[in-house]
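We emphasize that the prediction below concerns an isolated chain of 407 residues; any contacts that depend on oligomerization or on bound cofactors are therefore not represented. The input was used exactly as deposited, without trimming of termini.
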Amino acid sequence: MKEIFSNTLTELLRRPFRTLVNVLGYFLCCAFITIIVLLLRFDLQAKDSVVRYMGAKFLIYSPVRKDGAPQIKIAKDPVSEGFFTEPSVNTHLMPVSLVQKIAAIDEVKAVTPFLLFRIKQGQDGHIFSLGGIKVQDNYALKSTMVSEGDIVKGAFFNPNDRNVVVVDKSYADLWNLKPGSVVNVADALYPVIGVVSSHARTARADIYMNWEDAKKAINKRLTVPLDDEANIFLVASTGGEFNATAMKKAQELLEGNLSANSVNCSLHVVDFMGLSKNTLNYVLLAACILVFLFSANSQWSLVSEKRHEIAILKAIGWKNNVIFAQIVLGSVLQSASGGVPGTIAGFALFPLCAAMLEIPFNEQYEFLNLPVLFAWVFVGIVLIAIFSALVPAFKAVKTSPADVLRN
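Result of the prediction step, given as a token string:
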């Protein structure tokens, strides 16, 4: 084996220009592939952050059915008021303890109860929606409803805030509300401390209150006061692709008496992510094919040029397996010599390329672990070099010295 390696190295150095061109070709191919893959992976992770916001959330509720059990706790004005979910589905109340059962589902990352009640304003008769949230469930609210990051004016709730409200921007614009304004909820006045943006949510309300304040306000409008109950559960799943499974398991908790709705674009963003992942796979496949063709063409040309030398070597007694091994080893050495440095260069140049393309590079994204990246590149390039050299090597060992020398 040592002799084969020595002969292969000597043969490569005998043709320095050809060897340099091959090594440089591998270098450029691997650098280009590395940059493209990192750019696509970066783009994929950036999209994934959007998907996890847009597609990995849903709500659970128990709809009121005409043939179902009657509601015990109903509004004093059932025509205009009541518990509901969008667009206009009346809902039953459920125990807040159901949170633990939903949270135990493997595909669920966070869950929080939500009170959504339609109220008729006493002064002018307009109808608005009141939402009661548990501010301490910060992660679940951030993933599904509203959080401090959604504030466009003023401030968000602190866990201990009482007798204050936050309003949705669309409602604030309609009634010219801003921090410091006062709103009437269930015949009581509440100061507005903040305005939150209107964006894609599992559910929304015109006015948000701390959980206890919302219960107090809603109880004024009910025939029987609330216990520890909610009419909606807001759920964040572990990923958009797991949303459907999480929703199905949640519905099974009460033997089908629960319904679940995701954000309208949830399925579309999951399909979008699948398309992006397929794009990355197709690019990788195309890159491997291009490198394979480059390597195969290089080895085929080399064997064609050396056919007289190979014939002479066979004529003086060189064995087929030695010639075969030397050709394959030469391909591996050239590919590794160019491929590994090319990968390092691609990784180093990636931030520069991202800047030139005006892509906001975020170093917090986890791309590829360097040792793993180099291991994959080394294994991949060696395999490509071996397979691309097989046909030329078989051609070499099948060479007939008499035929070649005669011609």
